[in-house]
Amino acid sequence: MQPWHAWVALALAATVYVYVAGSYGSALQLPLHGYCKRAVDRGAKALRKALVRVARQGRIPKHIAFIMDGNRRYARRLKQQATMGHMFGFHRLQSVLEWCNDLGIEHVSLFAFAINNFGRSPEEVEALMTLAKEKLCELVGKSDLVKKYRARICVVGNRTLLPEDVRQVVEAAEEATKDNAGMRVNVCFSYSATDEIATAIRRLVEDVEGGRLTETEIDEQALESRLLIPGPDLDILVRTSGQIRFSNYMLWQTAKLAYIRFVDVLWPEFSFVQMFWILVSWQLAYDRIQQRKALCRKPAST
Question: According to its UniProt record, which protein family does this protein belong to (predicted)?
């Protein structure tokens, strides 16, 4: 941990950032024009870079996940259609992925579309499928995340439920980025944790029936290795919108003592300052989390 005076300086810098960048974490949304707007934007970016540099002096999580909740409520607040809320949410996602890349986080998992979301109105589901196709193409073809930082896109979920045209775009996005060595982005689309666990169990059964696995080899690690979401253990789970629930997302991974933060702000309003303080609080709690994990791994005495 940094010396106490460094944390005080960080607190002051973050406070300044809040007032400079605004509650949305982006100076571009301030009611300023021309030179003032550009000056404030440059100042906010400089402060963000300074906070990133300081944060990277400490431990950085390898895997962070987001439940991106609140897009529709954000749209209602602005008296817009729900699809516009999802559009605002995508713009915030681009910023969050940039922050994660700058911080050096290697794996990011995103809850983009739950299986039970297919129960929404046909118009909204169709609009979300169209938006998913457009934004996946934009993410792969135009964003710095892939072109400059070489991120790898992996879409995780039950693809049999997706329309054929969406599956084609998903496969194309994965194929285009499969050799990239940068941050891995797991887009959980048509996903639920219970479906993921059921799929892992089916894979276990198939491997036993196929002679690739014996019944005595079935254990926690065997099941975990067959889950849909790859990568290291989940370090941090963040849910926006103030709702305190997991919504059937990454239940297996979260149960392994992930650091959980429920943020009382809608996803399009999620700011870098909030991201920064979540990271700092995780760094401060890291030793305690590792001690608890060690106790859980310790075999019970007989």
Answer: Belongs to the UPP synthase family.
